[in-house]
Amino acid sequence: MSVFRKNMITNDWVIFEPNREKKPTEFKSEQVDNIKVFKDRPSYKQTCPFCKGNEKADDKVLFTLPESKNWQVRVIENKFASLSRDVSLEIESKQRLHQEMPGFGIHDLIIDHPDHNLTIAIMPIEDVEVLLSAFLKRYLEIKANPLVKHVVIFKNQGAQAGGSLEHPHSQIYGLPVMPFETVVRLREVEKYYDSNNSCLLCDMVEDEQKLKERIVFENEHFISFVPYASISPYHIWIVPKRHSPCFGLIEQYEISGMAHILKNVLARVFWGLKNPDYNFVIQSHTQYENESIGFHWYLSIIPHVKKKGGLAYAGGIQLNPTMPETAAEDLRKAENEEGDW
Length: 341
What we know:
Structural class: alpha+beta
Helix content: 25-40%
Number of domains: 1
CATH topology: HIT family, subunit A
Radius of gyration: 20 Å
CATH superfamily: HIT-like
Shape: globular
Mean pLDDT: 91
Strand order of the largest sheet: 3-4-7-9-8-13-14-12-11-10
Number of helices: 8
Number of strands: 15
Strand content: 15-25%
Distance between the termini: 35 Å
């Protein structure tokens, strides 16, 4: 039987239809062993612009960690950036209904690791910690720019997730405007705070810890769970247990806990779902000093195991064939072929 559930943080209604996966189809997709494909990649590829040893003189390097030729993470300006950091920022109204402004913004690349065939799921934990430290360093640098209203860190892993290069890398934007979906999230958590005098995400964490049905993994400082009204199958949130509106406020002791849970959860996705393409994004309120007391930052992981249909495009209502409780159980039971979690 189908059921509607309300996603409190996005204000979306989601239809859950567990029997949908049984419906007949004439469109058969070719089954590919994505784990084998990934493991067959070399650690170094001569044609890859991100592999160590292929660095170019015209690369605009912002920093590396550590700061040496033997880098572990490399942060560079995107040669094909969709925005420019060298333009002025003035809104131009050509007509009453038409507003535009120059394409100011910051768009950088974070090369996750020197090796071509390592992703966070199978990366040594200490390397994940270095990567998150690079995230934080660049986040704070961009946040300090007075023209930037919002900073977003994300990953497009694989072609279905929008990726164009195999080598593991992430991206970071500094935007002069706040994206609409961030505005919606901010509005919803503020409404909840005004009505309940408490943080929506803090209350969600408390609820998930009581019920234990949708938790994937947790440690001292972070918890991961499939949201009660997840908008897609195996959609996972990683939430800090300490209330904080902005990723930029993460403490050094929390970096280790975040690295541990991020690697653990992505490894469960890698092994349990056979290495699907995925996105992740850090949902954070950059200029929190000015506006929010109710926002709580989190990291969202979206594995691409189902394509969107017409209903999602027509009305914004998502249809999810996998109940969150089932998805969380599947991920908890996933077997790590390289050892323990």
